[in-house]
């Protein structure tokens, strides 16, 4: 008989029907409500992403369409990079930027990992050539954001930081 699966359960132990109740250490010590202890969970992997929140003088933000597969597939998001250096290099190549500042880190939990989003707000004075020809990039004003498919943490970030 599998005592642990049928009688000795954490939620509702059936000590009165248990064949080993007289020698049960948990019952004698009064610990039946806390035993057996749950198995410790595996720590959730941590990932980091640096995102560029580029805003022009009219308050529009630069969005980038995500790839058709993977996390947030085909949704509009902020340009994303693995590290701050790569983000800065992209900004230098693509945007004529003015003021820049780091925003507070936003943590978003997925079922299989935790994402630490490091947003960088950059006020854009103008665009470098060629960016307007890229179909994966678009400018959107605050009123247009509601109609776009945006991941929840990106929508939250934009609502907090776009006037």
Question: Can you put this structure into words, describing what you see?
Answer:
With 163 residues, this protein is α+β, with helices and mostly antiparallel strands. The protein has helices at residues 3-6, 25-29, 84-94, 142-145, 152-161, and strands at residues 46-55, 61-65, 76-77, 80-81, 95-102, 106-109, 114-127, 137-140. The strands form two sheets. Strands 1, 4, 5, 6 and 7 form a five-stranded mixed β-sheet that branches.
For the structure shown, list the relevant keywords.
single chain; 163 residues; alpha+beta; five-stranded mixed sheet; three-stranded antiparallel sheet; 8 strands; 21% helix; rod-shaped
Q: Hey, roughly how much beta strand do the residues contain?
A: 25-35%
- Low-confidence runs: none
Helix content: 10-25%
- Series of H and E elements: HHEEEEHEEEEHH
What is the alpha-carbon Rg in Å? 26 Å
Mean pLDDT: 89
SSE blueprint and pairings:
Layout: H1 3-6, H2 25-29, E1 46-55, E2 61-65, E3 76-77, E4 80-81, H3 84-94, E5 95-102, E6 106-109, E7 114-127, E8 137-140, H4 142-145, H5 152-161
Parallel strand pairs: 1-7
Antiparallel strand pairs: 1-4, 2-3, 2-8, 5-7, 6-7
In short:
The protein is α+β, with helices and mostly antiparallel strands. Helix content is 21%, strand content 30%. The model has no long low-confidence stretch (mean pLDDT 89).
